[in-house]
Design brief:
Layout (H helix, E strand, L loop, with lengths): L2 H9 L6 H12 L5 H14 L3 H12 L14 E6 L7 H11 L3 E5 L10 H6 L10 H10 L2 E4 L7 H11 L7 H14 L4 E8 L8 H16 L4 E8 L7 E3 L1 H12 L6 H19 L3 H12 L3 H13 L16 E6 L6 E6 L1 H13 L13 E4 L6 E2 L4 E7 L5 H9 L1 E4 L9 E5 L1
Parallel strand pairs: 1-2, 1-4, 2-3, 4-5
Antiparallel strand pairs: 5-13, 6-9, 7-11, 8-10, 8-12, 9-11
Helix pairs in contact: 1-3, 2-4, 4-9, 5-11, 5-12, 5-14, 9-10, 12-13, 15-16
Bound molecules: uracil.
Uracil binds next to helix 9.
């Protein structure tokens, strides 16, 4: 078999066999297929799609490209969570410690930033000294001892996704339902958890632009999980506006930590999404009703225990002095304030997530090429969000970076905001699909 034949097939919109897909994954992981050939096949898939059989074959080939973690030695139900990607989406950093504080083990393989959406791994590495390269043994021990671990794909854990994910990020091949579904589900099936909650985002800052497309993606992932005896709940939530007030890396970690320390002062949409996702994770692990699970989440959140769990995770995943104090405050070298224009009277109707995600990426919080180094200080801080009252010259947001910020960024940021003279509902919609 030759990779060119596989590329030609998909270019001509013909179905790939299981063998074609296995050949591609094996060759790419073993470096006998080059990046440029893999990019061509990914683009053909992006354009012509994969049917369910092909998507399942791709998921399985990726899943078996490395080890599948066996968590059976750990007592009790193990739960996992994943987002399909959003702007300002730091929900994992909040829900994993909450659910662990409720006594349910969370075993999670995360991803890096993808396109304009941020990634938990990049955010974790923005914490001084923290590593996401856990061996299978470290991952297991940490889930056992602390109750949760957030790790990256490695040479042993889903290496196919590690390579393909980085390539898709810089080749315009992220927004493909079969590629998203196989990337997420290969990681979820490899992490060894018994059940999972998937947060499927739709809107301008998500890969699925409409709720209909997000529903289609949710159904594909549910169908993949059904063949594997894992419980799955998908929560569909809007990503037209960024989630929360921080978009970047260091600032998102700080917002997550602050929410755990002081939930009553958190952004309501971020708090709501975190409570809902945690409650579904707890519900599938304990079989409690959703209302009971939600109450348990609220109680534990106000007990302060999740903050301790978060700190235990940072200490466990820190390579240097693990007793060092955890201080997530930071000061970017450059800041630019973006103000409401003279004609802005009324309320913020929308802050376009796609534009803000792109600005954050361009400021240095994301990658344009595989080799790009992130500026962990870079990003956007929203001072006003959807539904807030606003008057001319109010500071709506600030842009952060370690390098001087061109004035053009502020102009682009201005254009992301729409105003309304009428009051605007601040809370975003959510719905749920279960297997
Ligand atoms: N998250 C992933 O892990 N993979 C994708 O392709 C998109 C979001």
């Amino acid at each position: 078999m030759h990779i060119l034949d596989v590329i030609e097939k998909k270019k001509n919109n013909q179905p790939l066999t299981k063998e074609d897909i296995q050949f591609f994954i094996d060759g790419y992981v073993n470096d006998t297929i080059e990046d440029y050939q893999a990019s061509a096949l990914l683009m053909a898939i992006r354009i012509n799609g994969l049917d369910f059989e092909e998507t399942l074959a791709l998921t399985n080939a990726m899943l078996h490209s490395g080890d599948i973690i066996d968590l059976s030695a750990i007592d009790g139900y193990k739960v996992d969570k994943h987002s399909t990607g959003g702007v300002g989406d730091k929900v994992t950093l909040i829900v994993a410690p909450i659910v662990a504080a409720l006594g349910v083990k969370v075993a999670k393989l995360s991803g890096r930033g993808l396109g304009i959406t941020g990634g938990t791994l990049d955010k974790l590495e923005a914490i001084d000294g923290v590593s996401i390269d856990l061996t299978e043994e470290q991952f297991l021990n940490q889930v056992n001892e602390i109750g949760f671990a957030l790790a990256g794909q490695t040479q042993n854990l889903v290496p196919a996704d590690k390579k393909l994910y980085a390539l898709r990020d810089v080749t315009g091949t992220v927004d493909s339902l079969p590629l998203i579904a196989s990337s997420i589900m290969s990681k979820k099936l490899a992490s060894g958890a018994d059940g999972m909650v998937l947060d499927v985002k739709y809107g301008s800052g998500a890969f699925c632009k409409t709720k209909e497309v997000a529903t289609e993606l949710a159904k594909i992932m549910i169908q993949i999980a059904e063949g594997s005896d894992k419980s799955i709940v998908t929560v569909l939530s809007s990503m037209d506006n960024p989630l929360g007030r921080a978009i970047g890396n260091k600032n998102e970690v700080k917002e997550a930590y602050d929410l755990l320390k002081n939930p009553d002062e958190a952004d309501p949409n971020l708090l709501n999404t975190s409570i809902e996702v945690s409650a579904y994770m707890y519900e599938i692990a304990t079989k409690k009703t959703h209302e009971e699970a939600k109450q348990a989440v609220l109680d534990v959140l106000h007990s302060g225990e999740p903050v301790k769990k978060f700190e235990e995770m940072v200490r466990a995943q820190r390579l240097n002095d693990s007793n060092e104090e955890i201080d997530l405050n930071f000061e970017p070298a450059y800041r630019v304030a973006v103000k409401a224009p003279k004609e802005a009277h009324g309320y913020i109707e929308k802050i376009d997530a796609q534009t803000i995600g792109q600005i954050s990426l361009d400021l240095g919080a994301g990658r344009h090429t595989k080799a790009d180094e992130l500026d962990y200080f870079a990003g956007v801080e929203l001072h006003k969000v959807k539904g807030d009252a606003v008057k001319p010259d109010d500071v709506v947001m600030e842009l952060y970076a370690s390098k001087p910020i061109d004035e053009a960024f502020a102009v682009r940021a201005q254009q992301a905001i729409t105003y309304s003279e009428q009051p605007v509902d601040a809370i975003d919609a959510k719905s749920v699909l279960k297997s």
